[in-house]
DNA sequence: AACACATAGCGTCAGGGCGG
DNA sequence: CCGCCCTGACGCTATGTGTT
């Protein structure tokens, strides 16, 4: 699909359903939370009505239709769409019909390929009970958030390269195993092997070489593997955290825009009302 | 240029959560 | 219960920026 979905015009940052906001909107105590998602649509350049503009209130008649009642529309220029109805489909008629399928989760957000981007509570593979429990007790991991952002593809790609990286780092790894301080050992060399086995040579204080017993070697290898994995995990975690923060910032911007639009609308309606009143 | 400070990124550890 | 994963916290290093 050619259409792009953006938040606040930031390319690639499909909308975010902030899990925190889910919690916030459930302040009344009701565990079932429906979060309104806001997206900005940028349609392909060949479409004159390239940008969608209008604030569509939940449960009001609008150009956004549910799947059961699809209605092709010409989208006016603009930017903010509220999508609250499950199974919603956005249609544009510009030459070829373009359809953006929105997943049925209440807080779904569009993404470029029509994949959805929803918050933690919407994962398919989780029971409602568990979702509820997680929502109450635990902030979703950045991995989950990333997946929900529709970045699964990216994540998978990264996993691919990551696997490669892992392979490389494991096979070409040169590290210094940790040796108990009182062991009297000094590491001389550790050469990684493609098979994952490291050949470790030690020297005692007289400079004599020998390979220590399999237990120490095994412990050392396990530790190095753990450190390596944790290193990668930390890197990944930071990356996701950054992405998450970026998405939150985008969302703030979108909400600010929406707020501004609503204020303007209110203002003009007030003026209209006063005008009619005086007549 | 030298220095101080701020910021970003990294590696490691610790601890909690989760699946098997 | 154990092993693994995720992530906050901490310390370290590199880089950028403003000041002297």
From TrEMBL:
<feature type="domain" description="BZIP">
    <location>
        <begin position="220"/>
        <end position="279"/>
    </location>
</feature>
<keyword id="KW-0539">Nucleus</keyword>
<feature type="coiled-coil region">
    <location>
        <begin position="238"/>
        <end position="272"/>
    </location>
</feature>
<dbReference type="Pfam" id="PF00170">
    <property type="entry name" value="bZIP_1"/>
</dbReference>
<dbReference type="InterPro" id="IPR004827">
    <property type="entry name" value="bZIP"/>
</dbReference>
<dbReference type="InterPro" id="IPR001630">
    <property type="entry name" value="Leuzip_CREB"/>
</dbReference>
<dbReference type="InterPro" id="IPR046347">
    <property type="entry name" value="bZIP_sf"/>
</dbReference>
<keyword id="KW-0175">Coiled coil</keyword>
<protein>
    <submittedName>
        <fullName>Cyclic AMP response element-binding protein B isoform X1</fullName>
    </submittedName>
</protein>
<dbReference type="Pfam" id="PF02173">
    <property type="entry name" value="pKID"/>
</dbReference>
<dbReference type="GO" id="GO:0000981">
    <property type="term" value="F:DNA-binding transcription factor activity, RNA polymerase II-specific"/>
</dbReference>
<keyword id="KW-0238">DNA-binding</keyword>
<feature type="region of interest" description="Disordered">
    <location>
        <begin position="1"/>
        <end position="29"/>
    </location>
</feature>
<keyword id="KW-0805">Transcription regulation</keyword>
<feature type="domain" description="KID">
    <location>
        <begin position="109"/>
        <end position="168"/>
    </location>
</feature>
<keyword id="KW-0804">Transcription</keyword>
<dbReference type="InterPro" id="IPR003102">
    <property type="entry name" value="CREB1-like_pKID"/>
</dbReference>
<dbReference type="GO" id="GO:0000978">
    <property type="term" value="F:RNA polymerase II cis-regulatory region sequence-specific DNA binding"/>
</dbReference>
<dbReference type="GO" id="GO:0005667">
    <property type="term" value="C:transcription regulator complex"/>
</dbReference>
<dbReference type="GO" id="GO:0005634">
    <property type="term" value="C:nucleus"/>
</dbReference>
């Amino acid at each position: 699909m050619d259409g792009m979905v953006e938040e606040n015009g930031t390319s690639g940052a499909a909308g975010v359903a902030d899990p925190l906001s889910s919690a916030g909107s459930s302040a009344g105590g009701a565990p079932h939370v429906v979060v309104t998602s806001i997206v900005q649509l940028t349609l392909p350049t060949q479409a004159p009505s390239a940008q969608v503009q209008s604030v569509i209130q939940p449960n009001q008649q609008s150009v956004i239709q549910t799947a059961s009642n699809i209605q092709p529309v010409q989208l006016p220029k603009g930017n903010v769409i509220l999508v609250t109805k499950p199974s919603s489909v956005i249609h544009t008629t510009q030459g070829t019909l373009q359809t953006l399928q929105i997943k049925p989760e209440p807080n779904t957000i569009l993404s470029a390929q029509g994949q959805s981007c929803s918050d933690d509570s919407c994962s398919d593979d989780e029971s409602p009970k568990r979702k509820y429990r997680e929502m109450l007790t635990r902030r979703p991991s950045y991995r989950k958030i990333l997946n929900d952002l529709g970045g699964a593809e990216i994540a998978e790609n990264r996993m691919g390269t990551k696997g490669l990286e892992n392979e490389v780092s494991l096979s070409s790894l040169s590290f210094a195993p940790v040796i108990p301080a009182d062991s009297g050992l000094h590491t001389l060399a550790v050469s990684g092997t493609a098979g994952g086995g490291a050949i470790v040579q030690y020297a005692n204080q007289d400079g004599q070489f020998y390979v220590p017993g399999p237990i120490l070697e095994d412990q050392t290898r396990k530790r190095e593997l753990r450190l390596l994995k944790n290193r990668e995990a930390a890197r990944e975690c930071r990356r996701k955290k950054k992405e998450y923060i970026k998405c939150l910032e985008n969302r703030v911007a979108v909400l600010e825009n929406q707020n501004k639009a609503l204020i303007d609308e209110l203002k003009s309606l007030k003026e209209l009302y006063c005008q009619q009143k005086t007549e």
